[in-house]
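The aim of this short unit is practical: by the end, you should be able to scan a pair of folded records and say something sensible about each. We start with the first protein, listed as its amino acid sequence and then its structure tokens.
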Amino acid sequence: MSEHEELKVEDIKKEAEEKHCPVQRSLYYIEKFLSEPMCGKCFPCSFGTYESKIRLKDIISGKGTDADIFALKRIATMMIESSRCKKGKDTAKFILEWMNTGVFNEHIEGRCPDKECLAYIEYRIIPDKCTMCGECQVVCKFNAIIGEKKKPYLSGYLPFEIRQKRCTKCGECIKVCPTEAIEIVDIKERLAVSG
């Protein structure tokens, strides 16, 4: 493998590390790995990375199981031992490095500590902080925010609220809120508090 290719592997890792969630990093890295041509001389890279991609997507979407984590570790270990190129070995090494953070297990339990995986979070408006300016409602392209903008000298307004089934979690509402009244909430923690 040339120095140019090694640098490229490190560049992909740096790009992946821009994501906070190690599961998201792993998926990003694997997708980049699969988008490049492979030599096809060994099965661990070609089959292993594709299988890893499917299992990582399941974990990110909230459908992952302990079997997925076991399979990812097995695939990465096999790639380290059997891949013929440095690129395959590095891919496995990075995946195992990110798996050792414990975050993968937290996803299986229903939490993304970095609040980056959309299946595990909700956007909520904090009523005490909301000034009812309506900026969030204006930028929401999906009509996920209901409520009424406050007008001087009038009362009895419907407070702003995010309809979870319509919310795509794009983050535009957070960007425009002048009082930081919109927060990202861990669904599991919210259910534990309300249950």
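Turning to the second protein, read its sequence before its tokens, just as you did above.
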Amino acid sequence: MNRIASLQSAAPAAAPSARKSPVQERSKARVERILEAAAELIERGGSDQLKMSEVAASAGISIGSLYQYFPEKSALIRMLAERINAGSRECIRDGLKDVTDLASLQSAFAGLIDVYYAIVNERPVMRDIWSGMQADRQLLTLQIAESRVCGQMLADAMHKVHGRAHAKRIGQAAFLIWEMGEATIRLAIAVDPAEGVALVEAYKRMALREITHPLA
């Protein structure tokens, strides 16, 4: 996704975040090395197999230095996920900003799904980071919160077309559409490419029906 590159009830406690915020350029460079090393290791072996000792060795730092920045593996996965999420939000805002009517909404949504599917195919590490988040309850909470944010951006675009008379219903539909979209893409990249394309197309047809007639 080229644009990505430019891409509640009693909730559990927030997932651990980075322990130490880098201020100096040297520290920032070290964090970048850590994140790059972790992403490469996740891409090769998956998030389940990621070991902090291997991240430290790959980044060329001591395990103690690594723990100064990331107290545990979930904190590392969280920062990688937050970077992906920030790029995704920018992409979604850019894709939906010119929506003025139903036709432009349909085109913008379909385009976003196509772009998102393309970038995940290009960067399989995103799939593995998602997998790591699904397996950790605290990180799963973060992922659901992100779907709410992205769903709200879709809901705001839908309000431009359908009005705000049924804001709650449209908001729920948009949240569900977005969460199902991410699940569909995770599934699509796990199966044969031809089947994956067909699944994404089927999802778009289903989602566009709801986007077109959310009050039916």
